User: Fold these one by one.
Assistant:
Number 1:
Amino acid sequence: MERMKVKHADRLNIWVHWTLLVGLLCSGLMLTLGLCILLTTGQARQNGPPETILVLLQQMLHGDGLAMLELGILMLILTPVMRVLVLAAGWLRLGDWRSSAVAWTVFAMLLASILLGVG
Amino acid sequence: MITTPNDLPVLLAAGIGTGVLGAILGTGGGVFLIPVLVLGLGVEMHHAVATSIVTVVATSSAVASVNVERGTANMKLGMTLEIATALGAIVGGLSAEWLSPRLLEAMFAVLLAPTSVMMWLGKKEGGEMTPDEGEAHINPTVAATTQIEELAKHHRYQAGLLDGQYYDAKLGRTVRYRVQRLWGGMLVSLGAGVVSGLLGIGGGVFKVPAMHLICNLPIKVAAATSNFMIGVTAAASAFLYFGRGEVRPVLTASVVIGVLGGSALGSVLNQYIHGRTVNRLFAVLLIGVAIQMLCRAWVG
């Protein structure tokens, strides 16, 4: 039983590690590619808020470097949020109710701060 | 505006420096990056702050991915303190209209000066077990928490749920530690959250000394746990800056790519740096931040 708990706890560390690594690799790749495209084409950024995610995805599929950068940055910002989710779910699975409750509280506060517009 | 290929090496270098500092000291690097962007490259302040916030997320994620794997970051403690930080960030954001950021900066600058002296002197890590106690009881097939409970029984103290251990490559042994005075850490984290919401920084300069000096964590654990936390705090602000279109993609991408490289380099260096050196580097950083905050408060 104890060995199984150690195994699960180790696995949770690996999940968090991989969540961060995948988020970083994907965003890093998109930022590098987007930057290369932009520097060669010399495309300038328009002022104002970015397009919606769907529009950005469509633009990226057409080889738009700027859309690739915007999506890469968005993916980077989402990475820590995903980390909190993985920990909350992982601790819940391990039966560590207290830590899981803390992680879910942090996740709820993150959402609240985004919704309140105060970060 | 920074979009020419000529600026790329400077931005990459600034990113690498920020990443190395973040990996070793547990800060997001905003206090270093913002002056470089504003004074060195002429970037407008709000764009520099937006870039800095995204950079904090990058540093935190890159360093945390290594620290989590090594077990240096105390994730349970980080998450617990994050409740106070997130609450502080909301309070900071809500009170931004009637609280003067300049007055706050002056107050924190005054607080940082004695803190830097305490960090320079370092702290006898009372929560740490001695090498004999630690090494003799290590059993890889038994959960770390169980071993800590056994040690607690042996040394007659109440084992905390947040106590932990990590392997220090420089010392060549496993270091076990106790988390003490959690309330103090929570209080400072709340303050760090308020400052983060008001000034757009990660708040690592407050969290690391709090965890080390108040909660009695080894300096490397304090830095790793702070790094784990600041990404979560900064992510909430980063969404806002992104939504308002204040994040300049080319500028941010150039710095972030440098940060990812710098964080990897810093994580490797961190293994071979003594805790005492980290203490002293952090003290120097605190003095720099205090001077920067005083200047901004003075100029307005």
Number 2:
Amino acid sequence: MNKDLFSCDLRSLGIFRIGLSLIILVDLICRATDLAAHYTDLGVLPRQVHFSQFSDIWHWSFHLAGGSARFQAFLFLLAGVFALMLLLGWRTRLATVLSWILLVSLHNRNTKILEGSDALLRMLLFWGMFLPLGARYSLDQRLGRVPQMSERVFSMGTAALLGQVFLLYFFTWLHKSGPEWRADYSALYYALHVDRWVTPFGLFLLRYQELLKGVTFFVIWFELLGAFLLFSPFWNGPVRTLAASIFCLMQIGFSLCLSLGIFPWVGIVAMIPFFRFSKPVTLQRIGPNFLPAFFFVYIFFWLLGALPNVPRLIPGHFVWIGKTFRLEQRWRLFAPHPAKTDGWYVIPGRLEDERKVDLFRQGRPVSWKRPKLISATFKNNRWRRYMRNLRKSKKHRPLYADYLCRDWNRRHGVPPRLVKLDLYFMKDKTLLNYRSTKPKKTRLLSYRCL
Amino acid sequence: MKKKLAEIFSCNVRLLALFRIGLALTIIVDLILRSTDLTAHYTDQGILPRALLIKEFSNPWHASIHLANGTALFQAFLFAGAAVFAFMLLLGWRTRLATLLSWLFLVSLHSRNPKILGGGDLFLGCLLFWSLFVPLARRYSLDQSSKASSDLPERVSGVGTAGFLLQVAFVYFFSFLHKWNIDLWRSGEGLRASLSYEPYTTQIGLALLNYPHLLKFLNFAVLALEAAIPLLLLSPFFTRQIRILMILLMGGLQLAFSLCFTLGNFPWVSMLAMIPFWLPLSSSQAIEDETMVSRILASFFLICILLWNLESAFPAFKMPTSFHQMSRGLRLSQEWKMYMNPSDKNGWYVIPGRLASGEVIDLLRRGKTVGFERPRLLSALYKNHRWRKYMRGLRKDRNSIYRRYFAHYLCRDWNAGHRGKDRLEETTIYFMLEKQKKIGAERIKLWSGSCGKAMS
């Protein structure tokens, strides 16, 4: 096999490192706006409940060490410092390992707000630990801490990093098995009907059904074709650059139509290692080899076992490896077909003086009308994810309700206090050809504040 | 005056290096001993699962990275990490960092299971904390090996060394004050009362109970020593001679204590703490050698521990709440109430368990047949001092919530090694409360329940 196909330029890795660290920083800042709500004992997932009901035996999180906002803020700051070290390329290897530890720890503190992009970010950082990320555009290089290396390197680490991107697109293609993707190409039509995501531009595009069909066809087949083109043995340089560019454009396109949080950015950063920034030079083989190769094979079988109608392939005795290092991934993105129901939340709360307020809309009067732009009713993508999970996991609903009660009463300080609340989801089914149904009012929970 | 103060509160760097080596060895031994109860004390399968800990000790100031995961494997990993840092401390490699990390891991470990902590653990935590402010690695260390040692000062002084030495002095002095506040000790009966609480008394201690006059004399001797030693250790005159005498007396006192009482690692940690008090044979000038930051921090924490000790000894005295929380968070909160439990009643546990075969065994004595007669030596019932500490609390009403978890742990532990008809099905925990010595004991049932399917 041609090693050149699986090699990376040191400069690409340097830019990749800068991109990674910027995403981590931005993610931390966004998450910090919900510090108390998502990560403390006063939030939606207090540690006591986490320990007794929701903690996976092999998951670990240093964010569970303390339950106060102050302690979480300290860990966030620490993670910020490590991300800055990564950005500057100062003691890069150490910064990568520490950033990875704190990222996994953060993810495990509250898994209900995680999405595919978090898994991808985690994996990119994970492979980054095996790579010379700090060899270019870094303080380490400036300070002469980087050993002499060829501009282009190959190791099992570079192969695994590039291979990870292949796995992402290849397995998401495998999962997208519904006729909406493969036969009638209505997938994007449905995707743009998922109210919690769709942006005004997405709503605008929804008018052109034929265009959407074309784009759907392109997306599904380019996910397969492009994944292989990234490793084309012929005209490798131009072909892989072109394929990577198209994937980037695809991500940008998605982000214009749908509010997907950090996903497009992680998707673009993942493509950086495919770009060449130096003239063809002699390839240098570097280490380490065993660990990345082992983990890559492990992940491949993990992914295969996660396909529908395939039994789990990783034996029970080895599941701990995937869980401990957080290699878990499935890439079921809009698969097997995009959701066909969505809707919006109304959370009427009753105050002591019998007044009713909508807790989901900062205490405005309750209205059952469809909001103009549903995606704008969510504060950010973490809440968007959380509220979707709430529809599926019953156990989390009382925790959320309890948080709403505490939050309201703390925020308002003075009476009237919140006494009771109801959690309603206005379920809206997507039909073909723009036909509409009446939204169905479903009560998820009725809760009396303690 | 200033020179004299600097003289009194100075430490010899060789002794500090010896202390560092002793400290590191103590931490390593502590880790090894604790790891024999890894599952029982630190995992979700043990006596204090994480959910219960958070529910019962909602102190927001006690963070513990040992809460990150509930499996024995992960705890073993953290233990190994702590051992690596202790080893760095032993070798004196990146000593300041090693001290900081060792302290963080120790405090975290303490917060993971406060139910098994003794005075020795608290003392060790304080010593490690103050070690951050003294130069531990000026001799016998990898940090120092590259530099020439001849032109470095033999003796250093500063707020850090003062804080370190005062911390040690406080332990004895406030222990004396606590005892002095109690009539039993003032009337000469304190030592006898302490020895009468048999779960903490050794064979020798029991024998001593037959000599009431001797005990009365020793009672006052202990009081006198605990009051005098800290004052004389910091004496401005004849410093060297008095210190050597005091250290010998102190060693004798600790040795006597450890012969009479089961105290876990306390006597050992106390001896360790005496090392920096030995004065150097060379009478070179003490050099002030600390950074401004270190000086300010050390002064602040010195005030903290002084206030905290004053508050514990004089309940009327109240320290500001911010100091209170801060000291708690750093585990500097201290109360040196040692060896006095006049209210504690003697007693022992009997824990019968019924197997699937119908046979009944004693779980505390690992399978021997059940007997309710009094064991000869109550303190020998427990595997180690941590269990002794834990079991002492278990019978109290306010700890009733822990009994279920203890029973479940016993089930899991037994059934991990027994199958079929040897499986444990049901446990009962009795406490045999002895209201008056040698007049029989009252059998109190603390817990009774089946092991259940979930516990298998």
